[in-house]
Design goal:
Number of helices: 10
Strand content: 5-15%
Oligomer: single chain
Shape: globular
Radius of gyration: 23 Å
Largest sheet: 5 strands, antiparallel
Structural class: alpha+beta
Length: 447
Amino acid sequence: MWLLTISCSKKTKEIQQYQPDEFSRSLDKLSDDLVWVENCNVTYSKVLADLKNVKENFAKVTAEHKVNFPQKEEFKKRFNNLEKEAEFIMQACADEKNPSPEQVTKDKLEAAVMEWRVRIDDIRKNLLSVDPRNKNISPATSNGVSVSSLTAAGLIFQDGLESYLPKMIVVPSGSFIMGGTDEENARLDVEPFASEYSKPLHQVTIAKSLAVGINEVTLGQFRQFAKETNYKPLDGCRCWIANQESRMLPVKGADYTNPGFPQTDNDPVVCITKEVANDYAQWLSQKTGKKYRLPSESEWEYFARAGTQTTYYWGNDPKDACGYANTYDLSSKAINTYTSDGFVFPNTDCTDGFPYTAPVGKFQPNKFGLYDIAGNAREWVADDWYPNYNGAPVNGEPRTNGYAMFGITRGGAWLYRIRNLRSAYRNSYFSSEVRTNMWGFRVVREI
Protein backbone atom coordinates (compact mmCIF):
# COMPACT_ATOMS: atom_id res chain seq x y z
CA MET A 1 0.00 0.00 0.00
CA TRP A 2 1.44 3.39 -1.05
CA LEU A 3 0.44 6.48 0.86
CA LEU A 4 0.98 10.15 0.11
CA THR A 5 1.13 13.12 2.43
CA ILE A 6 0.74 16.51 0.85
CA SER A 7 1.50 19.88 2.47
CA CYS A 8 0.82 23.09 0.57
CA SER A 9 2.00 26.70 0.95
CA LYS A 10 1.87 29.75 -1.31
CA LYS A 11 5.32 29.02 -2.73
CA THR A 12 5.83 25.31 -2.64
CA LYS A 13 4.05 21.98 -2.73
CA GLU A 14 5.98 19.27 -0.97
CA ILE A 15 5.05 15.66 -1.59
CA GLN A 16 6.50 13.09 0.75
CA GLN A 17 6.15 9.52 -0.50
CA TYR A 18 6.80 6.55 1.66
CA GLN A 19 5.79 2.94 2.10
CA PRO A 20 4.89 2.07 5.71
CA ASP A 21 5.16 -1.65 5.08
CA GLU A 22 4.70 -2.87 8.64
CA PHE A 23 1.67 -0.71 9.29
CA SER A 24 0.03 -1.65 5.99
CA ARG A 25 0.64 -5.34 6.56
CA SER A 26 -0.65 -5.19 10.13
CA LEU A 27 -3.92 -3.59 8.99
CA ASP A 28 -4.26 -6.17 6.23
CA LYS A 29 -3.65 -8.98 8.71
CA LEU A 30 -6.25 -7.59 11.15
CA SER A 31 -8.83 -7.37 8.38
CA ASP A 32 -8.09 -10.92 7.22
CA ASP A 33 -8.43 -12.28 10.76
CA LEU A 34 -11.74 -10.57 11.50
CA VAL A 35 -13.64 -13.76 10.68
CA TRP A 36 -15.05 -16.41 12.95
CA VAL A 37 -12.62 -19.33 13.38
CA GLU A 38 -13.47 -22.42 15.48
CA ASN A 39 -14.45 -20.72 18.73
CA CYS A 40 -14.37 -17.52 20.72
CA ASN A 41 -10.85 -17.99 22.09
CA VAL A 42 -9.22 -18.78 18.74
CA THR A 43 -11.00 -15.93 16.97
CA TYR A 44 -10.32 -13.18 19.48
CA SER A 45 -6.79 -14.31 20.32
CA LYS A 46 -5.87 -13.60 16.72
CA VAL A 47 -7.69 -10.29 16.75
CA LEU A 48 -5.92 -9.13 19.92
CA ALA A 49 -2.52 -10.14 18.59
CA ASP A 50 -3.21 -8.30 15.34
CA LEU A 51 -4.45 -5.22 17.19
CA LYS A 52 -1.28 -5.05 19.24
CA ASN A 53 0.76 -4.90 16.02
CA VAL A 54 -1.61 -2.36 14.46
CA LYS A 55 -1.40 0.00 17.43
CA GLU A 56 2.37 -0.30 17.69
CA ASN A 57 2.88 0.30 13.98
CA PHE A 58 0.34 3.12 13.95
CA ALA A 59 2.30 4.92 16.65
CA LYS A 60 5.58 4.21 14.86
CA VAL A 61 4.42 5.51 11.48
CA THR A 62 3.01 8.64 13.11
CA ALA A 63 6.20 9.36 15.05
CA GLU A 64 9.00 8.22 12.73
CA HIS A 65 7.50 9.06 9.34
CA LYS A 66 5.81 12.20 10.69
CA VAL A 67 2.62 11.21 8.93
CA ASN A 68 -0.38 13.41 9.59
CA PHE A 69 -3.45 11.21 9.58
CA PRO A 70 -6.38 13.69 9.52
CA GLN A 71 -8.58 11.17 11.36
CA LYS A 72 -5.87 9.95 13.74
CA GLU A 73 -8.00 10.31 16.89
CA GLU A 74 -10.94 8.58 15.22
CA PHE A 75 -8.74 5.63 14.24
CA LYS A 76 -7.25 5.39 17.73
CA LYS A 77 -10.75 5.32 19.20
CA ARG A 78 -11.79 2.46 16.91
CA PHE A 79 -8.66 0.42 17.66
CA ASN A 80 -9.19 0.91 21.41
CA ASN A 81 -12.88 -0.01 21.16
CA LEU A 82 -12.11 -3.24 19.34
CA GLU A 83 -9.40 -4.12 21.83
CA LYS A 84 -11.71 -3.58 24.83
CA GLU A 85 -14.48 -5.59 23.19
CA ALA A 86 -12.19 -8.47 22.27
CA GLU A 87 -10.77 -8.66 25.79
CA PHE A 88 -14.22 -8.54 27.37
CA ILE A 89 -15.71 -11.15 25.04
CA MET A 90 -12.83 -13.57 25.62
CA GLN A 91 -13.42 -13.29 29.36
CA ALA A 92 -17.18 -13.69 28.93
CA CYS A 93 -16.71 -16.81 26.79
CA ALA A 94 -14.46 -18.36 29.43
CA ASP A 95 -16.76 -17.48 32.35
CA GLU A 96 -18.87 -20.50 33.30
CA LYS A 97 -21.08 -18.15 35.32
CA ASN A 98 -21.43 -15.55 32.57
CA PRO A 99 -24.68 -13.70 33.34
CA SER A 100 -25.29 -12.93 29.65
CA PRO A 101 -24.88 -16.36 28.01
CA GLU A 102 -26.97 -15.63 24.92
CA GLN A 103 -24.60 -12.81 23.95
CA VAL A 104 -21.60 -15.07 23.32
CA THR A 105 -23.15 -17.48 20.83
CA LYS A 106 -21.36 -18.28 17.58
CA ASP A 107 -23.91 -16.45 15.42
CA LYS A 108 -23.79 -13.21 17.39
CA LEU A 109 -20.02 -13.11 17.69
CA GLU A 110 -19.57 -14.06 14.05
CA ALA A 111 -21.78 -11.10 13.15
CA ALA A 112 -19.75 -8.84 15.45
CA VAL A 113 -16.42 -9.66 13.80
CA MET A 114 -18.03 -9.19 10.37
CA GLU A 115 -19.13 -5.69 11.42
CA TRP A 116 -15.66 -4.90 12.69
CA ARG A 117 -14.08 -6.06 9.45
CA VAL A 118 -16.19 -3.50 7.60
CA ARG A 119 -15.02 -0.83 10.04
CA ILE A 120 -11.33 -1.73 9.70
CA ASP A 121 -11.60 -1.88 5.91
CA ASP A 122 -13.14 1.58 5.97
CA ILE A 123 -10.16 2.82 7.98
CA ARG A 124 -7.74 1.23 5.51
CA LYS A 125 -9.54 2.94 2.65
CA ASN A 126 -9.53 6.37 4.28
CA LEU A 127 -6.20 6.53 6.08
CA LEU A 128 -5.27 9.92 4.64
CA SER A 129 -8.76 11.26 4.08
CA VAL A 130 -10.15 14.23 5.94
CA ASP A 131 -13.21 13.48 8.05
CA PRO A 132 -16.06 14.03 5.56
CA ARG A 133 -18.63 14.88 8.20
CA ASN A 134 -19.89 18.46 8.25
CA LYS A 135 -19.98 19.99 11.72
CA ASN A 136 -21.08 23.49 10.69
CA ILE A 137 -24.81 23.12 11.18
CA SER A 138 -27.21 25.91 10.31
CA PRO A 139 -29.65 26.80 13.10
CA ALA A 140 -33.34 26.01 12.93
CA THR A 141 -35.82 28.83 12.38
CA SER A 142 -37.21 29.91 15.73
CA ASN A 143 -40.94 29.55 16.24
CA GLY A 144 -40.97 31.37 19.56
CA VAL A 145 -41.93 28.28 21.58
CA SER A 146 -40.73 28.37 25.18
CA VAL A 147 -40.77 25.19 27.26
CA SER A 148 -39.53 24.83 30.85
CA SER A 149 -39.86 22.63 33.91
CA LEU A 150 -43.02 24.61 34.72
CA THR A 151 -44.69 23.69 31.43
CA ALA A 152 -47.75 21.51 31.91
CA ALA A 153 -47.47 17.85 30.96
CA GLY A 154 -49.03 16.99 27.62
CA LEU A 155 -47.86 20.03 25.68
CA ILE A 156 -46.79 19.08 22.15
CA PHE A 157 -44.18 21.27 20.46
CA GLN A 158 -41.31 21.50 17.99
CA ASP A 159 -38.12 23.51 18.48
CA GLY A 160 -38.35 25.34 15.16
CA LEU A 161 -40.40 25.83 12.03
CA GLU A 162 -38.68 23.11 10.00
CA SER A 163 -41.02 20.18 9.38
CA TYR A 164 -38.26 17.61 9.86
CA LEU A 165 -37.77 18.52 13.53
CA PRO A 166 -39.31 15.88 15.82
CA LYS A 167 -42.56 16.55 17.63
CA MET A 168 -42.00 16.43 21.37
CA ILE A 169 -44.40 16.08 24.29
CA VAL A 170 -43.86 17.10 27.90
CA VAL A 171 -43.89 14.12 30.26
CA PRO A 172 -44.43 14.72 33.99
CA SER A 173 -42.08 13.78 36.80
CA GLY A 174 -42.97 10.80 38.95
CA SER A 175 -41.97 7.44 40.42
CA PHE A 176 -42.45 3.84 39.31
CA ILE A 177 -41.30 0.29 40.02
CA MET A 178 -38.71 -0.73 37.42
CA GLY A 179 -38.29 -4.34 36.32
CA GLY A 180 -40.29 -7.50 35.65
CA THR A 181 -42.12 -9.59 38.23
CA ASP A 182 -41.67 -13.34 38.77
CA GLU A 183 -45.35 -13.82 37.93
CA GLU A 184 -44.97 -12.00 34.61
CA ASN A 185 -41.84 -13.91 33.65
CA ALA A 186 -43.43 -17.26 34.52
CA ARG A 187 -46.68 -16.45 32.69
CA LEU A 188 -44.80 -15.59 29.50
CA ASP A 189 -42.22 -18.38 29.84
CA VAL A 190 -39.30 -15.95 29.83
CA GLU A 191 -35.89 -17.67 29.82
CA PRO A 192 -34.23 -17.75 33.29
CA PHE A 193 -31.26 -15.59 32.20
CA ALA A 194 -33.59 -13.03 30.62
CA SER A 195 -35.74 -12.99 33.76
CA GLU A 196 -32.65 -12.02 35.76
CA TYR A 197 -31.98 -9.11 33.42
CA SER A 198 -35.00 -7.23 34.80
CA LYS A 199 -34.30 -7.91 38.50
CA PRO A 200 -34.39 -6.83 41.23
CA LEU A 201 -37.52 -4.73 41.20
CA HIS A 202 -36.71 -1.26 42.49
CA GLN A 203 -38.35 2.13 42.73
CA VAL A 204 -37.07 4.90 40.48
CA THR A 205 -37.98 8.56 40.83
CA ILE A 206 -37.80 10.89 37.85
CA ALA A 207 -37.62 14.20 39.69
CA LYS A 208 -37.95 16.51 36.69
CA SER A 209 -40.33 16.58 33.80
CA LEU A 210 -38.79 16.12 30.37
CA ALA A 211 -39.81 16.23 26.74
CA VAL A 212 -39.96 12.97 24.79
CA GLY A 213 -40.29 12.35 21.07
CA ILE A 214 -43.90 11.45 20.37
CA ASN A 215 -42.63 9.07 17.70
CA GLU A 216 -39.50 7.17 16.91
CA VAL A 217 -37.13 9.14 14.69
CA THR A 218 -38.32 8.60 11.13
CA LEU A 219 -36.41 7.81 7.98
CA GLY A 220 -37.28 11.22 6.56
CA GLN A 221 -36.03 13.02 9.66
CA PHE A 222 -32.83 11.00 9.59
CA ARG A 223 -32.30 11.75 5.89
CA GLN A 224 -32.14 15.45 6.77
CA PHE A 225 -29.49 14.73 9.39
CA ALA A 226 -27.52 12.65 6.87
CA LYS A 227 -27.76 15.40 4.25
CA GLU A 228 -26.62 18.20 6.55
CA THR A 229 -23.81 16.29 8.25
CA ASN A 230 -22.69 14.34 5.18
CA TYR A 231 -23.21 11.09 7.07
CA LYS A 232 -22.42 7.98 5.04
CA PRO A 233 -23.40 4.57 6.43
CA LEU A 234 -21.01 1.64 6.51
CA ASP A 235 -22.02 -1.33 4.41
CA GLY A 236 -24.06 -4.08 6.04
CA CYS A 237 -26.87 -4.38 8.56
CA ARG A 238 -27.93 -7.44 10.56
CA CYS A 239 -31.12 -8.86 9.07
CA TRP A 240 -33.21 -11.92 9.76
CA ILE A 241 -33.65 -13.82 6.52
CA ALA A 242 -37.27 -14.86 6.11
CA ASN A 243 -38.61 -18.25 5.02
CA GLN A 244 -35.45 -20.20 5.75
CA GLU A 245 -33.27 -21.12 8.71
CA SER A 246 -32.54 -17.65 9.99
CA ARG A 247 -29.23 -16.25 11.18
CA MET A 248 -29.06 -12.57 11.94
CA LEU A 249 -25.82 -11.76 10.15
CA PRO A 250 -24.85 -8.50 8.40
CA VAL A 251 -26.27 -8.45 4.88
CA LYS A 252 -24.04 -6.81 2.29
CA GLY A 253 -25.67 -3.77 0.72
CA ALA A 254 -28.11 -3.25 3.60
CA ASP A 255 -28.14 0.03 5.50
CA TYR A 256 -30.66 2.61 6.71
CA THR A 257 -31.62 3.39 3.10
CA ASN A 258 -32.13 -0.29 2.28
CA PRO A 259 -33.06 -2.34 5.37
CA GLY A 260 -34.33 -5.32 3.38
CA PHE A 261 -37.93 -4.18 2.99
CA PRO A 262 -39.75 -1.10 1.63
CA GLN A 263 -40.19 1.92 3.88
CA THR A 264 -41.82 5.32 3.62
CA ASP A 265 -40.12 8.45 4.94
CA ASN A 266 -42.56 8.24 7.84
CA ASP A 267 -41.39 4.78 8.96
CA PRO A 268 -38.87 4.57 11.82
CA VAL A 269 -35.27 4.67 10.67
CA VAL A 270 -33.45 1.38 11.37
CA CYS A 271 -29.96 -0.05 10.77
CA ILE A 272 -28.52 2.65 13.05
CA THR A 273 -25.79 2.15 15.66
CA LYS A 274 -26.07 3.69 19.10
CA GLU A 275 -23.17 5.98 18.21
CA VAL A 276 -25.04 7.35 15.19
CA ALA A 277 -28.21 7.80 17.27
CA ASN A 278 -26.13 9.93 19.64
CA ASP A 279 -24.77 11.88 16.65
CA TYR A 280 -28.32 12.61 15.52
CA ALA A 281 -29.22 13.92 19.00
CA GLN A 282 -26.12 16.12 18.98
CA TRP A 283 -27.12 17.46 15.55
CA LEU A 284 -30.58 18.34 16.91
CA SER A 285 -28.93 20.12 19.82
CA GLN A 286 -26.84 22.18 17.42
CA LYS A 287 -29.87 22.94 15.23
CA THR A 288 -32.10 24.09 18.06
CA GLY A 289 -29.77 25.26 20.82
CA LYS A 290 -31.55 22.84 23.18
CA LYS A 291 -30.23 19.71 24.88
CA TYR A 292 -31.35 16.60 22.98
CA ARG A 293 -30.07 13.14 23.87
CA LEU A 294 -30.98 9.48 24.16
CA PRO A 295 -33.05 8.64 27.23
CA SER A 296 -31.55 6.73 30.10
CA GLU A 297 -32.84 3.19 30.49
CA SER A 298 -34.88 4.07 33.58
CA GLU A 299 -36.32 7.18 31.90
CA TRP A 300 -37.32 5.00 28.96
CA GLU A 301 -39.16 2.46 31.11
CA TYR A 302 -40.82 5.28 33.07
CA PHE A 303 -42.32 6.95 30.03
CA ALA A 304 -42.99 3.59 28.32
CA ARG A 305 -45.09 2.42 31.27
CA ALA A 306 -46.80 5.82 31.50
CA GLY A 307 -48.10 5.21 35.00
CA THR A 308 -48.85 1.50 34.56
CA GLN A 309 -47.28 -1.53 36.23
CA THR A 310 -48.87 -4.07 33.91
CA THR A 311 -46.96 -6.30 31.48
CA TYR A 312 -47.73 -3.98 28.55
CA TYR A 313 -48.77 -0.37 28.68
CA TRP A 314 -52.26 -1.40 27.54
CA GLY A 315 -52.64 -4.10 30.21
CA ASN A 316 -51.79 -7.80 30.54
CA ASP A 317 -53.66 -9.35 27.62
CA PRO A 318 -51.41 -10.13 24.62
CA LYS A 319 -54.47 -10.51 22.39
CA ASP A 320 -54.89 -6.72 22.48
CA ALA A 321 -51.41 -6.14 21.07
CA CYS A 322 -52.37 -5.36 17.48
CA GLY A 323 -54.25 -2.25 18.52
CA TYR A 324 -51.17 -0.84 20.22
CA ALA A 325 -48.01 -2.31 18.68
CA ASN A 326 -46.50 -3.46 15.40
CA THR A 327 -45.34 -6.97 16.25
CA TYR A 328 -44.79 -10.37 14.63
CA ASP A 329 -48.45 -10.97 13.93
CA LEU A 330 -50.52 -12.88 11.37
CA SER A 331 -49.81 -10.33 8.64
CA SER A 332 -46.08 -10.77 9.25
CA LYS A 333 -46.31 -14.53 9.33
CA ALA A 334 -48.21 -14.55 6.02
CA ILE A 335 -45.10 -13.15 4.31
CA ASN A 336 -42.24 -14.12 6.61
CA THR A 337 -41.63 -17.32 8.52
CA TYR A 338 -38.69 -16.93 10.87
CA THR A 339 -36.85 -19.88 12.37
CA SER A 340 -33.65 -20.22 14.36
CA ASP A 341 -32.01 -23.54 15.21
CA GLY A 342 -35.21 -25.27 14.16
CA PHE A 343 -37.35 -23.08 16.42
CA VAL A 344 -40.23 -21.40 14.58
CA PHE A 345 -40.95 -17.92 15.88
CA PRO A 346 -44.43 -17.86 17.46
CA ASN A 347 -46.63 -15.08 16.10
CA THR A 348 -49.06 -12.92 17.99
CA ASP A 349 -52.59 -14.18 17.24
CA CYS A 350 -53.96 -10.98 15.76
CA THR A 351 -53.46 -8.80 12.67
CA ASP A 352 -51.84 -5.36 12.77
CA GLY A 353 -51.60 -5.00 8.97
CA PHE A 354 -47.86 -4.39 8.69
CA PRO A 355 -45.46 -7.25 7.87
CA TYR A 356 -42.43 -4.97 8.37
CA THR A 357 -42.10 -1.52 9.96
CA ALA A 358 -45.17 0.68 9.97
CA PRO A 359 -45.40 4.45 9.52
CA VAL A 360 -45.09 5.95 12.99
CA GLY A 361 -48.24 6.79 14.92
CA LYS A 362 -50.49 4.11 13.39
CA PHE A 363 -51.30 2.45 16.71
CA GLN A 364 -52.84 3.68 19.92
CA PRO A 365 -50.47 5.70 22.13
CA ASN A 366 -49.79 5.14 25.80
CA LYS A 367 -51.20 7.41 28.50
CA PHE A 368 -48.33 9.88 28.09
CA GLY A 369 -49.19 10.27 24.39
CA LEU A 370 -46.22 8.28 23.05
CA TYR A 371 -46.58 6.02 20.00
CA ASP A 372 -44.86 2.74 19.10
CA ILE A 373 -43.21 2.28 22.50
CA ALA A 374 -43.93 -1.46 22.53
CA GLY A 375 -43.33 -2.28 18.85
CA ASN A 376 -42.25 -1.15 15.38
CA ALA A 377 -38.54 -0.60 16.14
CA ARG A 378 -36.53 -1.28 19.27
CA GLU A 379 -34.99 1.86 20.75
CA TRP A 380 -31.45 2.70 21.83
CA VAL A 381 -30.96 4.13 25.31
CA ALA A 382 -27.96 5.89 26.82
CA ASP A 383 -26.84 3.16 29.23
CA ASP A 384 -24.14 0.53 28.88
CA TRP A 385 -25.08 -3.11 29.41
CA TYR A 386 -25.51 -4.57 32.88
CA PRO A 387 -27.03 -8.06 33.25
CA ASN A 388 -29.29 -7.01 36.15
CA TYR A 389 -30.34 -4.02 38.24
CA ASN A 390 -28.01 -4.60 41.17
CA GLY A 391 -26.74 -1.17 42.16
CA ALA A 392 -28.79 0.58 39.50
CA PRO A 393 -29.44 4.33 39.94
CA VAL A 394 -32.82 5.22 41.41
CA ASN A 395 -32.88 8.81 40.11
CA GLY A 396 -33.13 8.29 36.35
CA GLU A 397 -29.42 8.64 35.62
CA PRO A 398 -27.87 6.29 33.00
CA ARG A 399 -25.42 3.57 33.95
CA THR A 400 -22.21 3.87 31.96
CA ASN A 401 -18.59 2.69 32.16
CA GLY A 402 -19.46 -0.39 34.14
CA TYR A 403 -19.91 -4.07 33.46
CA ALA A 404 -19.75 -3.80 29.66
CA MET A 405 -19.46 -1.02 27.09
CA PHE A 406 -22.20 -2.39 24.85
CA GLY A 407 -25.44 -0.51 24.26
CA ILE A 408 -28.97 -1.48 25.32
CA THR A 409 -32.18 -1.44 23.30
CA ARG A 410 -35.65 -1.30 24.84
CA GLY A 411 -39.14 -2.08 23.56
CA GLY A 412 -40.22 -4.58 20.92
CA ALA A 413 -40.00 -4.56 17.14
CA TRP A 414 -41.96 -5.50 14.03
CA LEU A 415 -40.82 -9.17 14.15
CA TYR A 416 -40.67 -9.64 17.94
CA ARG A 417 -42.86 -12.17 19.67
CA ILE A 418 -45.30 -11.00 22.28
CA ARG A 419 -43.24 -11.73 25.39
CA ASN A 420 -40.58 -9.35 24.07
CA LEU A 421 -43.04 -6.47 23.85
CA ARG A 422 -43.36 -6.25 27.63
CA SER A 423 -42.36 -2.96 29.24
CA ALA A 424 -39.63 -4.67 31.29
CA TYR A 425 -37.91 -6.36 28.32
CA ARG A 426 -34.26 -5.39 27.79
CA ASN A 427 -31.32 -6.79 25.85
CA SER A 428 -27.94 -6.05 24.31
CA TYR A 429 -25.54 -7.39 21.69
CA PHE A 430 -21.82 -7.49 22.41
CA SER A 431 -20.67 -5.14 19.66
CA SER A 432 -20.44 -1.36 19.55
CA GLU A 433 -20.76 -1.60 15.75
CA VAL A 434 -24.08 -3.48 15.81
CA ARG A 435 -26.91 -2.24 13.63
CA THR A 436 -30.02 -4.22 12.73
CA ASN A 437 -33.16 -3.70 10.67
CA MET A 438 -35.20 -4.01 13.87
CA TRP A 439 -33.59 -1.21 15.90
CA GLY A 440 -34.09 2.54 15.80
CA PHE A 441 -34.40 5.22 18.48
CA ARG A 442 -36.32 8.18 19.86
CA VAL A 443 -34.92 11.26 21.54
CA VAL A 444 -35.63 13.20 24.72
CA ARG A 445 -35.09 16.90 25.32
CA GLU A 446 -34.16 18.38 28.67
CA ILE A 447 -36.42 21.18 29.92
